[in-house]
Amino acid sequence: TSFLQLHPFIASPYKFWLNVIGIKNEPLLSGIAEIFEIHSLAIEDIRNNQQRPKLEEFDNLVLLISKMLYTKGNISEIQTEQVSMVIGKNFLITFQENEFDLFDGIRTRLENPLGKMRKLGPDYLAYTLFDAIIDEYYVLLEKLYDKTEQLEDLVMANHHKSLLSQIYRHRKSMQEIKKVVWPTREILSSWKKSESTFLKKKTQPFVNNIYEHSVEIIENLEMQRESITTLVEIYMTNISLRQNEVMKTLTIIATIFIPLTFIAGVYGMNFEYMPELEWKYAYLGIWIFFVLTTAGMVYYFKKKKWF
Amino acid sequence: TSFLQLHPFIASPYKFWLNVIGIKNEPLLSGIAEIFEIHSLAIEDIRNNQQRPKLEEFDNLVLLISKMLYTKGNISEIQTEQVSMVIGKNFLITFQENEFDLFDGIRTRLENPLGKMRKLGPDYLAYTLFDAIIDEYYVLLEKLYDKTEQLEDLVMANHHKSLLSQIYRHRKSMQEIKKVVWPTREILSSWKKSESTFLKKKTQPFVNNIYEHSVEIIENLEMQRESITTLVEIYMTNISLRQNEVMKTLTIIATIFIPLTFIAGVYGMNFEYMPELEWKYAYLGIWIFFVLTTAGMVYYFKKKKWF
Amino acid sequence: TSFLQLHPFIASPYKFWLNVIGIKNEPLLSGIAEIFEIHSLAIEDIRNNQQRPKLEEFDNLVLLISKMLYTKGNISEIQTEQVSMVIGKNFLITFQENEFDLFDGIRTRLENPLGKMRKLGPDYLAYTLFDAIIDEYYVLLEKLYDKTEQLEDLVMANHHKSLLSQIYRHRKSMQEIKKVVWPTREILSSWKKSESTFLKKKTQPFVNNIYEHSVEIIENLEMQRESITTLVEIYMTNISLRQNEVMKTLTIIATIFIPLTFIAGVYGMNFEYMPELEWKYAYLGIWIFFVLTTAGMVYYFKKKKWF
Amino acid sequence: TSFLQLHPFIASPYKFWLNVIGIKNEPLLSGIAEIFEIHSLAIEDIRNNQQRPKLEEFDNLVLLISKMLYTKGNISEIQTEQVSMVIGKNFLITFQENEFDLFDGIRTRLENPLGKMRKLGPDYLAYTLFDAIIDEYYVLLEKLYDKTEQLEDLVMANHHKSLLSQIYRHRKSMQEIKKVVWPTREILSSWKKSESTFLKKKTQPFVNNIYEHSVEIIENLEMQRESITTLVEIYMTNISLRQNEVMKTLTIIATIFIPLTFIAGVYGMNFEYMPELEWKYAYLGIWIFFVLTTAGMVYYFKKKKWF
Amino acid sequence: TSFLQLHPFIASPYKFWLNVIGIKNEPLLSGIAEIFEIHSLAIEDIRNNQQRPKLEEFDNLVLLISKMLYTKGNISEIQTEQVSMVIGKNFLITFQENEFDLFDGIRTRLENPLGKMRKLGPDYLAYTLFDAIIDEYYVLLEKLYDKTEQLEDLVMANHHKSLLSQIYRHRKSMQEIKKVVWPTREILSSWKKSESTFLKKKTQPFVNNIYEHSVEIIENLEMQRESITTLVEIYMTNISLRQNEVMKTLTIIATIFIPLTFIAGVYGMNFEYMPELEWKYAYLGIWIFFVLTTAGMVYYFKKKKWF
What we know:
Five copies of one chain form a homopentamer. Chain A is of the alpha+beta class. Chain A has helices at residues 7-11, 26-36, 40-47, 104-111, 116-119, 122-157, 162-193, 204-266, 282-303; strands at residues 16-21, 54-57, 62-71, 78-87, 91-96.
C-alpha cells in the first residue's frame, strides 16, 4: 500500500507485472496513476466498468481495456468482468474488479525463468493474458451452440408458446457476446497496425493469431444468428401448419355432417303430405343415402390429400 | 448590447467564452458575425435550428453545430435544442435558442482559476460543453431501455391492438435520436482527424473519449432496434397462437356435437317404419352411444395434444 | 439565333450566362457545341433527357447534369425536368427542355451590380441554380411527409384493400426521388473534391452546404422508408387481429349454441320410451339447463378475455 | 485459315480488327494465341464460355471478357453469349461462339475512312463494341419493366397460385442479368483506372460514359427487385384479406342461423307439457322473433363494418 | 523418418515437395518444424484442424492453410479436410490429415521433366494444388444446385411438414461451404497483393485466376441463398393458399346448409297452429325453395370465384 517502494522499479531495467484488484479503490488508483504517470482519461476508463473494449495509445504507455465473459451455468446469464491493461516500457499493470483464477496458468508459466514470457516484453505478457480471455469466449460459443441445437430440436418437435421467448433470450445472449467481441476485433486490428514503441514487432504474429480468433468468433456468431432467424421462421410455419390441420379436421367433420343433418331435419318436418314418410323402405333407403354420401365425401377428401 | 466594447478583447491575449441566447435575434447575430468575422454560411447554419449536426472548418474559426436532446417526461416526446459553437483563436462563442441549465456545472468549474479549463484553450471548453451534451444522450438511452423492457413485458403478457402503435412510436423515438447521434459521431471523427490550428492536439484524447461514447450510443441504439424487431415478431406469433387456440376450441366443440346432433336428428325423423323407435332400450342405448362417442373424441384430441 | 455574335464574348474578360431552352433543337445545340468547344459526349448527355445526374470534368469545361423534381398536385405524380450546366472559364450555359420560373429569383439577384454573384465566377452562379433546385426537393419531401402521415392515420383506423396499393404507390414515389437525390449527392461530393480550375476554391463552402442538404434529404428518405415498412407490418397485423376477432365471434356463438341444439335435438327424437318427456317440469328444467350452460360459457369466455 | 499471312500485319503500322467465330475451334485458337502471343490463361478464359466478365491486363495486351444478353421472346428465357476482346498495340481480336448481327452497324461505321473509329486506336473500337453490347441490356431492362408491370396488374387483380411461381421466375431472370451486369461495372471501373498503354487516355471519357450506363442498369435492377419484394407482400396480404372475407361470410351466416336453428329445435322437442305449443299466435310470434333477431344481427354486423 | 537426410536438400539448389500425412504425429511435425525453421505459431495452426483458412507471411516462409470440401453422397454431409502448405525458397511442404487422391493428377504432371511446374517455383506448385482444391468446390456447388432445384420442385408441388427442415439443412450446408470459401477469397486476395519473395510475380496471373473462381463461387452461393429465401416464402404462401381452400370448402357447405337446416327445423316445430303444415303442396314447395336457395348460393359463390 505504500507506493514509494515502487519507484525504484520503474527506473530499473527489470520488467514487472503489477496486478491491481479492486478498481473502486480510489486512493490505490490515483496512487498508481501518479507513479506511472497514467493520463487522467485512462484512469477514468479503468475505473468505469461499463467501458467499451478499446486500445488507446498515450505518449508514455498503451491502454488496453478488455472484457472477460463467463457464465456460471446457463448461457442466458452471462457475466462480464473488465480487465484493463496498461503496457509501459518495462511494466504491465492489470486492473480487475474481482480476483479470479483465469490467469493462474500464466503465472505458472511466468515462473519459468527461461520461458518466452520472460524474454519478450510486457506487450507479450499482455498478449498472453488477452489470449486467455479470448479462449474463454470459445467456451461461451460452445454453450451457445449447445443451446441453439437444443432450441432446434424443440422447434422441430413442438410449439409451446414459451419457445419464442426462449429464442428471444438466446438472441439477447448473442447480442451481449457480440457487443464485447466486436470491439475486441477492432482492438486487435489496431494493435496489428500500431506503431507504438510499447507494442513491439516481435509480438505481432501472436497478435495476428488472436485477431483471427476474434474474426472467427464473430463469423460463428453471425452464422448462429442466421440459424436462429431460420428457426423462428420454422416455428411460425409450424404454427401455420398446425392451424391448417385444425381447420381441416373441422372442415371434414362439418362438411360431412351438416348436409346429413339437413336431410334428417327435412324428414323431421311435420307436413301432412309427405309421401316418402309412408314408403316401406324409406328409412333403410335414407341410411343407405347417408352412408354413400359420407363415403363419397371421405373419398373426395382422400383424393385432395386432406388426410 | 453594444458590440464595440468587445473589440479590445479579440485582440487581447485573454481567452473568453461568449454565450449567445436567442438565435432569432437578427441584429445580435449580424453584429457578432461582423466583429468575429464569421462566414455568412456559418451564421446561416447557426440561425437555422433545423440544421444537421456538423463540424466545419473556416479559415479563421471552426463551427460546430450540435443538438441537445432531452425529454421532460415520456420518452416519446423528445425535445431538440440546437447548440452551435464557434471556436476561434482565443474565444468560444456558443449560440442557443433558449437558456437552460445544462452548462451550469461547467460554469462553476470555470470559476476555478487553476482548473484545466483555464489552462487549455477554447477547444477544450467546447469539448467540455459537448461532453455535457452527450452525457444527456445517455439519460435518454436509459429511458429508451426502460420503455423497451416495458414493451417486452407487455408483448409477453398480452396482445392489445394498441401495443403495435406503441412499438411504432417507440421506433420513431429511436429514429429521432439516431438522426442526431449519427452525425454527431461524424463530427467527432472529423475533429479527431482535423488539422485545424484551432483544434489543438492536446484536446485530442478528450475528443477521442467522447467519440467512443457516440459509437457506444449508436451500438446500443442498433441493439435496441433489433430487440424491437424481434418483439414485433413475437407479438405477431402470439396473435397466431391465440388464433390457433380459438380455432381449436371451435373445432373441438363442433367435432363433438355436430355428429351427435345428426344422430339426434335421425331419430327425430317422422318415417312410419323406423324399427328402433319401438325398442325398449333404444333411448338408453343412444345415450350410451352419445357418451362413448364424446369420450372417444376427447381421448383423440388429448392424444393429439389439442388441450 | 446567329451564333457569330457570341464569339467576341468568349474571348472577352466578361462573365456571362447563356440559358438555352429546348434541348431537342439540334442545330442550336450543335452550334453552341462548336462555339464553346463542348465535347460530343457532353452534348449527347445534354440532349438525352433520361440522363442520370452527374458531374464530369473535361479539359476546357465542367459538365453538370441535374434534375428538377416538382409536382403539380399529388405527390404520386412527380415530374422530372433535366437541367444541364456547362461551366467554363468565364461563362455558364444552362440547358433545359421547357422554360420555368424557378430561376427568376436568381435573375433578379443577378441584376444587382454589387451582388456576390457578379463578383464570384460562373461556378458560383451554377451553385446558386443548383441550390434553388435542391430547395425544391425539400418541398417534395414535405409532401411525402404529409402523405406518410396520412397513410399512418389510415392504417391505424381501418383496413381497406386499396390501402396497400396506396402504400405501394407511395414507395414508388420515394424510389423516384431517391433515384435523383442519390446521384446528386455523388455530384456534390465530386465537386467538393474536384481540382478543376473551373470550380474555384472560394465556392467550396457553398457547395459543402448543399452537399449537406442532399445528405439530409437522403437520410430523411431512408427514415420515411423505414416508417413505411413498419406501417405495412402494422397493416398486416391489423388484418390478423381483425380475423382473430371474426373467428372469436364465430367460435363464441358456435360453442354456445351447437351443444344446446344437440340437447334440443335429443328431445325431438321420436323414441317411444323416453321417460323425461312425460315429466311435468322437464320443459322448465331444460330451459334452466340452457340458461345455466350459456351463462357458464359466457363466464368462461370472459375469463379467457375473449370479449 | 493460314495464319502465316497475318504476321506481316502485326509488325505493320496498320490497325486491324480480327473477328474470330467459334471458340471451340482448338487449332484456330492456338494458332492465334501463338501469333499474337496471348497468355495461356487468357486463351483458357476465352475458350471457357462460362467465364465471369472481366478485364485483365497482360504485358503485351489487355483481355476483356463480356457477355451479350438477349432474348428471343419471353424475358424468362435469357440467352447468354460470350464476347471476348483482346486489345493489343494495333489490333483488336474479338472471339464469339456464334455469328450474330449486333456489330453490323459498327462495321458500316468502320468503312467510313474519315470516321472517329479509324483515327482512334483499337481500344476505342473495343469501347464501341462494348457500348453496343450494353445498349442491348437496356432492351432487356425494358422487357423486365413490362413484365413487372404485368405482374403488378395481376397481383392487384387476383390471386392464382401460379402467380407466385411467375414472380419467382421473374426474380431469377433479374438475378441472371445482375450476374452479368455487376462484373461489367467492375470491368469498366478497372478500365477507367487502368494505366495500361493499350487503353489510351483519349478513350477514357467514352468508357466513363458506358460505366455510368452500367451503374444506371444496376440501380434500375435494384429498384425493380424492391418493387417485386413489395409485390410479394401485397400478394400475401391479398390472400389474407380474401381469407378474412371468407371467414366473415361464414361467421355472419353461422352467427345468424345457429341460434335460430336452436330455437326451432326447442319447439321441435316432444315434451308433453310445453304450454307455448298451444298458444294461438305462438307460431306467428316465433317468426316475428326470428325476423327481429336476424335484423338485429345484420345491424350489428353493419355497425362493425363487416359488410 | 530420419530427418537428417533432408538437410542437404534444403541447402541444395533443387526444388522439392514434401507431402506430410498425419498432422497428429507430434514428433514428425516438430522434426520438420526444426529443420525448416517453421515458426511455432505456424506449426500450431497446422496441427489444429479447426483452423480458419488463411495466408500468413513469415520471415523465412509463407504459410497457407486451405480446406478441402467433399461429400461422399448427399450434399447435406459435407466433409472437411485441412491442407496446409508451407512455401519456402526452394521447397513446398504440404500437411494433410488423411491421404487422398485429389493430387494424383498433379503428381503425374510433375513427373514430366519439361512441364511448367518444374520450371516455375514452389509457389506455382502450391497454386496448382490450391486450384485442384477449388475445382472440387465446383463439384459441391453443382450438388447444391441439384438439391435447390429438387427442393424447388417439391415446394411447388406439395407441402409436407418435413420440407421446411430439409430447407433448413440445405441452408446449413450452404453456410458450411461459405464458411470455407469466404476466407479462401481473402487468402487469394492477400496472395495477389503480397510482396513476399516466396510468392513470385510470375505466379500472379494464375493466382488471379483462382481468385476469380472463388469470387464466382461466392456469388453463386449468394444467389442460391436468395433463391432459398424465396422458396421459403413460396412455401409459406402455399400453406396460406391451402388454408384458404379449406376455409372456402367449409364456408360454402356451411353457408348453403345451415340456413336450409334452419328452415327444416322450423317445420319440425310442434306448434298446434301452423297453417302451412296442412297445405297440399307445402312439401313440394319447400323442396323447390331448398333447390332455388342452393342454386342461388352456388351462383353467388361462382360469381365471387370461390370455386
